[in-house]
Specification:
2 helices; two-stranded antiparallel ribbon; about 120 residues
């Protein structure tokens, strides 16, 4: 797995994610998110399959809206809307937030035939 990316790779991915316009400089605080997206994309293409969902160990919401999941910057843009954070005494908590996307696609499952 490739662990280094050129500034051009990072800038191209930032443009693809809609973080900047082509030719703009990427703000330093966003580089980690873009590199995380590149690594995730690379890992998915190398494995040939979607990664299995996993439970986050820790989610940190920092001042200014930056989000860190298990020590890694959250690679997607989050809307500046209220987050819903629920803390449970059993230790499992939830964070509900709104992701920003350029396009959203909802795929309807094929209808199942009832057995006769």
């Amino acid at each position: 797995m490739r662990l280094t990316y050129t500034d051009a790779d990072i800038a191209a991915k930032a443009v693809q994610l809609g973080l900047i316009q082509d030719g703009d400089d990427l703000p330093r605080q966003m580089r980690g998110r873009v590199v995380a997206a590149l690594l995730q994309e690379q890992a998915a293409s190398e494995s040939g399959a979607s990664p299995e969902p996993q439970l986050a160990k820790e989610i940190v919401v920092q001042p200014g809206g930056a989000i860190v999941v298990d020590g890694e910057p959250f690679p997607w843009l989050v809307a500046k809307q209220p987050m819903e954070i629920t803390l449970h005494p059993d230790g499992l908590s939830t964070v509900r937030l709104t992701l920003i996307a350029e396009a959203v696609q909802i795929i309807k499952p094929e209808p199942r035939e009832e057995p006769r």
